Amino acid sequence: MILGRFLLHRVAESYGLGITLEPKPVHGDWNGSGAHCNYSTNSTRAAMGRTVMDTYIENLSKRAELHIQCYGEGNFARLTGEHETASYKEFRAGVADRGASIRIPRKCDEDGCGYLEDRRPASNCDPYVVSAMLADTTINEGKNSENLVNQYKTWLRQESTTHSSMSRMQSL
Q1: What is the pLDDT of residue 53?
Q2: Which CATH code fits 28-164?
């Protein structure tokens, strides 16, 4: 995904265009842009994996607010509960439910194993942070979630400071 974003920016640049990864760059009555994450482990893909998915979903529900903090800047404008998005204020899971926070594809539910889809990440999310949060919450029962959120917020502050400094230097 990171390489794809880089290439997108370079191709657009060659045509004199700019790209934004904001989840809702134009406000209005539409769903915005997300980066849904399909997630599975050996356990979810094995026989009785659906039971494991239910445990994962329970763990995700307990840390929903922490996840939202790491799922991209400006994501609150996208996660309104309308237009096939779940509200950031509530956590909901469902089978084939495109308005849920976590969606289980119908085929996975029928097969009793497979993957789940986290529909909350924004288009500007860091896929490594999203993956780390999902893995920690599901496999490690969230033992490092708060630490991951704090590290992410520290990185955002540093990144913001770096961009501000670069902008000031370019204006000189």
Answers
A1: 98
A2: 3.30.590.10
Q: Are 135 and 70 in contact (CB under 8 A)?
A: no
Confidence at residue 39, expressed as pLDDT on a 0 to 100 scale: 97
State CA 137 to chain mean position distance.
14
What's the whole-model pTM score? 0.87
User: Which residue in 60, 65, 28, 27 sits closest to 44, CA to CA?
Assistant: 60
For 119-140, letters b (16+ CB in 10 Å) and e give bbbbbbbbeebbebbbebbbee
Determine the angle formed by the axes of helices 127-139 and 49-62, rounding to 10 degrees: 110
Higher pLDDT, 163 or 34: 34
Q: Which residue has the tokens 């501000």?
A: 164
